[in-house]
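Need the bound structure for adenosine-5'-triphosphate, inputs here:
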Amino acid sequence: MTEVNHHGKIVSFINMKGGVGKTTLCREIGYTLNKEHQKSILFIDIDPQANLTQSLYEKFHILSKSLFDNLSSEEKKDSTYTINNATISRLFNDSKILPEKNDIIVNLKDDPKISLIPGDLQTVFLERNGSTSTENSLDKFIVRREILNDFDYVFIDCPPTYSFYTTTAFNASDYYIVPVGIDPYSILGIDLLEQVVKQIQEDDFRRFDDKSLKNMGIIFNPLNYISNATSKRQFENQKRTIKKSKQLKKYNLFYFDEPFTYNSKYKEELDYFAIDSNDKKHNSNIKEITEEFIDRVKYLNKNIREGTDNE
Ligand SMILES: Nc1ncnc2c1ncn2[C@@H]1O[C@H](COP(=O)(O)OP(=O)(O)OP(=O)(O)O)[C@@H](O)[C@H]1O
Ligand SMILES: [Mg+2]
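Answer from helper R.:
Posting the output first, comments after.
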C-alpha cells in the first residue's frame, strides 16, 4: 500500500440533488489518484442507475454478462470485451452470506490497481426492503474482507436519494464529498444533507462514536458553459452566496478552491477522462482538484488522529 496514512479511506460522493456531478467527480478524482499518484482504488457503484459502472466498463472494455447474453452469436464471436457477472446485488440479496472479494470485485486493470464493485439495476427493488442488516452489509464486507489492506481509497458513488443506499454508503464511510451545482436551491440541499448525516449519526450513535463521518468538502460544478465575463461573474457571486450563507455557517464546511470546469466531452463520450486527454485546461483542473483532495485527506486524518477535529 502506498498510502502515507497506513489505512485506506472510504469516501462517499453524495448529494440528494440529481445531476450535480457525483458520478463524474467520483470517477475523475479516483482515476486521477490512480494514474497520477499511483494510489490503489476501489470504486463502489451503489446507485441502481449504474452510471459509474457503465462509464468504467466502457473505458476498460468490459461487458456485463446480461448484455453479452443479448448479443447475436456473430457478435459474441467477434466480441473483444471481458465478460463480467459480479455485481453489488450479491452483497444485498442475501446479507447472511458474506461474499468473498472475488464474488463482487472486478479488477479493471491489473497494475496499478483499480477495481470496481459494479452497480446493478436489480437492486432498485431494495429501496423498499432495505433492512438494518442490508444497511450494514457494505461496512461489514469492507471490514471482514479487510478491503482497506488492498486499497488506499474506496470511492462510493451514491444515487440522488435519501434511501437505503445512502445509509448503507454512510455506514461504511469515513468521509463524504458533496458536488454542488450552482443555483439558489443549493443552500437548502446542503443544509438538508447535513441534517440527514446528523440523523444517521444519532440513530446509530455507537458506530459513529467510534468512527468519524466527516464532510470532506463541497466541490462547485458550474454544469453549464461559462461563456463570458457576465456568466463568470454570476458563477463567482453564487459561489460567494453559498459560502457566506447564514443557514450553512453552523456546519463549518470546507469548500474546494478549484471548481470543476465545464467540459462538453462528458455528454459526448462515456469513457472520457480528463487526465487522459491532451486538453491542458481540463487536465490541470482535475489534477488540482485531486491535489486538494489529497491535502484535505491529510488534514482530516491528522486532526481525527489527534482528536482535534474542529476546523
Ligand atoms: N463539469 C461538467 N461539464 C459538463 N458536463 C458535466 C459536468 N459535470 C457533470 N456533467 C454532466 O452532467 C450530467 C450529470 O452528471 P453526473 O452523472 O456526474 O451527476 P450525478 O450527480 O451523478 O447524477 P445522478 O444524481 O443522476 O446520479 C452527466 O451527463 C454529466 O456528463
Ligand atoms: Mg450519478
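Comments: The pocket of magnesium ion (ligand 2) is lined by residues 22-23, 47, 51, 157 (CB under 6 Å). The chain has a mean pLDDT of 91.
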